[in-house]
Amino acid sequence: MIEVIRITYYIMNEFLQIRLLQVLPIGWNFGWSLLLIPLLPFAGFLLLGLFGRKYIKNSAGIIATALLLVSTVLSIYIAYVYFFEYGKVMGMYQKFVPIQFTWLEFSQGVSIDFGVLIDPISVMMLAIVTFISLMVHIYSLAYMKGDERFPTYYAFLGLFTFSMLGLVMASNIFQMYIFWELVGVSSFLLIGYYYNKPSAVAACKKAFIVTRFADLGFLLGILILSFHAGTLDFNTLVQRLTVDGSEELHSAYTSTFLGASALTWAAILIFIGGAGKSAMFPLHVWLPDAMEGPTPVSALIHAATMVVAGVYLVARMFPIFSMSEGAMHFVTYVGIFSALFAALIACTQTDIKRVLAYSTMSQIGFMMFALGVSGSNLKNGSLNYSGLGAGYTAAMFHLFTHAIFKALLFLGAGSVIHFIHSNELKDMGGLRKYLPITNITFLIACLAISGVPPFAGFFSKEEILLAAYQHKALIYWIALITSGLTAFYMFRLYFLIFWNKGTIVHGEHHGEGGFAMMLPLVLLAVGAAFAGFIPFGNFVTADGKPMEVVFHWQFSIAPVSIALAGIFTAMWLYRKQNNKPVAIANSLNVFYKAGYNKFYIDELYLFITKKILFNLVGRPAAWFDKNVVDGMVNLTGNTTQLISEKIKEFQSGKVQQYAIYFLAGVIGLAVVFIYIWK
Amino acid sequence: MSGSTIIFYMLAALTLVSGILAVTTRQIFRAAIFLLFSLIGIAGLYFWMQYDFVAAVQIVVYVGGITVLIIFSIFLTQQAGELLPKQKIGRLLYSALAAFCGFALTMVQLCQHTFKTTTEQPILPTVSNIGDRMLSVEENGFALPFEVVSILLLAAMIGCIVIALRSKPTTA
Amino acid sequence: MKNEKLLSIIQFLLLGNFIVGFFFNQTGTLFGGLFTTNALMAFEKSILSLGVYLISLLFSDWLKKSEHMPEFFILMLAALLGMFFMISSGSLLMFFLSLELSTIPVAAMANFDLEKKISSEASMKMILSSAFSSGILLFGISLIYGVTGTINFAEIPTLLDGSPLQILAFVFLFTAFAFKLSIVPFHLWTADVYEGAPMAVTSFLSVISKGSIAFILLTTLYKVFAPMQEIWYNMVMLLSIITMIVGNLFALRQQNIKRFLAFSSIAQVGFILVGLSSNSIQGTSSVVYFVLIYVFSNLAAFGVAGAIAQQTGKERIDDFRGLYQHNPFISWILALALFSLAGIPPTAGFFGKLFLITAGASKGNYLFIIVAALNLIISLYYYLRVIRAVFMDKNEHPIEKIILNPSAKLGMIICGAGIVLVGLLSCIYDYITALTV
Amino acid sequence: MQPGLYHILFISAALFFIGVFGFFTRRNLITILMSVELVLNSVNLNFIAFNKYVWPHKMDGLFFSIFVIAIAAAEAAVAIAIIINLYRSHQSIDVENAEEMKF
User: Fold this and answer.
1) Hey, which of A80, A336, C248, D7 has its CA 20 to 30 A from B120?
2) Which of these, C303, C360, C307, C332, lies nearest to C420 by C-alpha position?
3) How many angstroms separate the CA atoms of A116 and A99, rounded?
4) pLDDT tens across B54-113, in order?
5) Residues of B in contact with A663 (CB under 8 A)
């Protein structure tokens, strides 16, 4: 086996001119195991895609899961090696590029390379992506069992995991772009997996087109950056554009368009690319619809991987973003607005997966603005960005914890849907008796996302709020309110599913779905409970130097109490079948009501939550989202159709009329270029 | 006014007037004959410019060849004495406008441009000069275009034969 | 069958023609500058030869049944020869003659479905439009000749200065290219001719013919009209934007697959112009590279549509619904082709468009690039529509199993492999760039 | 005034656009073809005029016009074959009867 690898290595070296840089002191095993991480899922994709339907139909899931298990073990091993053994040199986590080969050289210095970049965030992402993907693989063994296209499903999962890992490891911004597009394609395949459902087909098309639209921004950003920096390599890019007084930085600062420098434009355009994938307002329209895919897929794509690609991109380009105050503000405000907006909408949704979708959008908004408030260097007059990255660490930390508990939430929801065969909250209730494990794990996840100590979300959200607090009071207050809303809508969901009214369970009772479905839930629940204790600041920081995260317990009082308030409101409203408003309306006896002291407080409470929060804020926000933002997307489509109908007369089938247009074109061009546009 | 000038204006008038008639008359035979006159007028202009060889080619190919081909095809497709269908007035106006705009633009540009003149020794367009050039492979020779045109004519003939020799006419 | 044997021989010879193209790539001129050649031109010709070979494979069913197969090849090869001369032409005379040589036989070929009315109609529309366009072209050439006194490509640039009459002449000349490339508003003949002509001819027109014009347009704009660079840059940009928009808008509403591909190819040409506008080495190599990809993708799409039309007579996109049920192989080929045309990774079309955009962006005119990229997204709508019809829509009576003959299958496999490999193997792009320098 | 270059250019431009006008307005396919012939002839006149008055030391224009005549013949032949064929299927050579494909 080793001989084979050696020979392959030789061949690749000699004939394809792949340079394998031996900068790591561990020897070549390390380098190749890095390559194996993405290649194993890809192998799974090829294997299942080519032979799955005919030969290995039944064992397809096992094969894919086994391959991914190896990948996961490798990436956790690499994370261990990186963080604890070799990554830190002179007290700083280094960036390594152990593998890189030039795929195409555009011009001197500007080349598309394929390589592997190892630094704290990519190592962390490797571990988290493979881990969540593994959980989803295991879970799907039971969830998708008996599906007609079982091997195809696993093939798509493999392709998706491969492209996501390629994106994470990219050492070159163009490589990232290519994998970025691949992620889009494979998510398109996964969302449209139930291709017989018209809504799924429409959803995948929409997801694809909206994200492509955003990718356009990314591409333009790349083009502008490479034009000014003269390179596409991440490390070189960051080096050239962050050194004070460098020629490239000067050119990027001084060439302006519409009052902003090229650097700001590039950063904003790249952010738009990220916003498309990460479902930031107003490019989020695809996310709720994308819930048409199989539920484990939602756990993979919409919790841990694809939707955080935008955050990852901004984090990867963070030094460049931090050179532009305008771009940082843009990121901050889009992030905070999306967080609040999505939280409001989440309060009104009745489809369990849609609530989770908006919640994802809201949480990613948190990560985004955390990056945004990480401080702009220009304010200090110095170009050194170290020491300002509290928000950066917080965002990465939240990305990490969110991946775990959101995957848990989705998988739990999958378990519920599996049991009840419906997505609608009205069909659920009282399920805690039937689904004990799901109930507990879901509760843990809800506590984690609400920020209740000592669960994971508490720590990461705390850091974000702290960063916001240090930055600007407005941001902090909005974030605080959003965090309360988060607790409210998550527990609304929780109580409506597991408490509230009892549910009539139709047909035979088939339990919770067996070991394969429960194992991921339990593992993730353990993660959601304890991941917060990882001292993240020691590992992932903007500059690679460990950062002491100071923990102020006084500071936690406000967020925790607001979270608890949200939880208790939800509990009070939804724990039992909600007869309060009905009862009030029914009891006509005014005196009886007056004597009932609690009544006024009740009324007030209801007024605030139901009337104001729901009808005045949440509903309009949802309406706006559904009709205006979404409508814009559809409108573009309809308008194009309409215009194309209107101009069909040009194609009249009359050859002489064609000739008249021909001559008119000639004369028009001649007149334009002789007299007007010289 | 010299005789040469008078001849020029007569030829010009012949060419343009019969050109206009060729594209406007509603009797197709007359149109063909006016086209013939117009082409002869052009041949006359070539003679007038002392490009005898081109004039001869013009008469042989156009007058003797293409016009006859056109007249034959009229025989094949047209009943005698039938008037051509009228064109819509809107189309006529647009076409006239487009053609006139094009003409005006071209003439304005042509008149504003002063063409260079050369003092070099002119080459007379005698048949021997033309023949030498036509078959020369050196610089300023035209052997290659000559071959290309011959291939083109061959291909065109084959195409014509395939299309025209359709085995049986279908749908009436 | 006589046709069958002959066809095999012809296919073999065409393959030979393609291979031989790689052995003779010297630089030089012949006939006193009328014929020039270099390695890049040889490569461009090889692309066209490859396309013709693929056409002979993909449409072998139709060819075998055709009464006039030998004549078809004579005309097609005459047109191919015309394109070779055109790519190598060193003077406007050679350019004009070879342009006609590559047009007139194709117009006759468009009539080869002799029994069909629409075939004659298509042929008529093509020959009349092209006669009109060559009239305009000739007028332009005569003005260029009048102004500069020469028709040699080598001498013209030294004598141009961008005076109004030269601009007029250039516009007249350029519209001939625009006509053949179907640039809006000179494109109107395209869809009608594509629809009426036999599928093999349509694919020849849409792929080979356009490719050759794109190549000669590179020479014409970059070398011959180099002094008028600013004018033609603006013109190309303007036309490119209009072309993409109109091509996309019309493609959205087409039902016939041939008309659909016609308008989609118009939009593709708009994209070629984006790369072409850059006037740089990168511009040349990206255009050549894109044409290579375009040959594979478009021929694959036409090949599949042709196979279906040949056996079932169905040409409407609605009829393609549920194609995947009985015909997974051709469905995947079609999907690959459309993905590549739409520029979706990891197909070659993605890289082709990427390089065109990067080349176009090197001028720094980002507004233009944004418009181009937006059009790329609009185009997704209709490409996905076909994909959706093939894979996702239900149909009571889906198209039955199509029996492909081996050579058509081979052709599709070559196209499919090309679509995947040309993108992934960077050496191809490097090779083209090396030739360009 | 002695007629010179500009006179001939005027004739040829006029003839060109007369032909174009005919191309736009004629409904019979054969007459459309005749208009095309006028267009091509006017171009020839241009070439000869430029050759005679502006660049008499070279013969490019003269040769160009000879080749254009040849091309015109080939084009006319193919066009007439197509028109005859169309006549056989449509029983008409009115251009408005050949507008089946549109939009």
Assistant:
1) D7
2) C332
3) 5
4) 999 999 998 888 898 898 888 888 776 778 888 889 889 999 999 999 999 999 999 988
5) 98-99, 102
A:631-650 residues touching chain D, CB 8 A cutoff? 648
Q: For A624-656, what is each residue's pLDDT tens digit?
A: 777 776 777 677 777 877 887 777 778 888 889
Residue B117 lies in a domain: no
Q: Say if residue A282 is preceded by a cis peptide, omega within 30 of 0.
A: yes
* Helix residue ranges, H only, C182-322: 189-196, 199-203, 210-219, 229-252, 257-276, 281-312
Hey, are the CB atoms on A227 and C172 less than 8 Å from each other?
A: no
B91 and A671: CB-CB below 8 Å? no
In D, minimum Cα distance to C95 occurs at D64
pLDDT of C154-211, one tens digit each?
999 998 888 899 999 999 999 999 999 999 889 999 999 999 999 999 999 999 999 9
Q: Which residues in chain D touch residue A648, judged by CB atoms under 8 angstroms apart?
A: 103
**A464 and A550 Cβ atoms separated by less than 8 Å:** no
Full domain range(s) for residue B31: 3-111+124-165
What CATH number is given to the structural domain containing D37? 1.10.287.3510
- Cβ contact (<8 Å) for B95 and A667? no
pLDDT at C300 over 80: yes
Q: Which chains touch D (3 or more CB pairs under 8 A)?
A: A, B, C
Q: Which residues of A touch D103 (CB under 8 A)?
A: 648, 651-653
For the segment A337-342, the average pLDDT, to the nearest whole number, is 88
pLDDT tens-place string over residues A517-550: 888 888 888 888 888 787 777 777 777 777 766 6
Searching chain C, which residue's CA lies closest to the CA of residue D41? C135
Does residue D12 lie within any of the structural domains?
A: yes
Q: What would the mean pLDDT of B133-155 be, rounded to a whole number?
A: 89
Look at residue D34 and tell me if it is in a domain: yes
Rounded Cα gap, residues C124 and C134, in angstroms: 15
Domain span at residue D57 reads: 5-95
The structural domains of chain C, with segments of one domain joined by +, span 2-436
Total structural domains within chain D: 1
Q: Is residue D100 part of a domain?
A: no
- Picking from C49, C66, C44, the residue whose alpha carbon sits closest to that of residue C15 is C49
Query: Can you give the CATH number for the domain in which B7 is found?
Result: 1.20.120.1200
Among the partner residues D36, D47, D101, nearest to C135 by beta-carbon distance: D36
| Residue D103 within a domain | no
Going by the DSSP 8-state scheme, the letter that residue B165 receives in this structure is T
Chain centroid to Cα B33, Å, comes to 14
Position B13 in a domain: yes
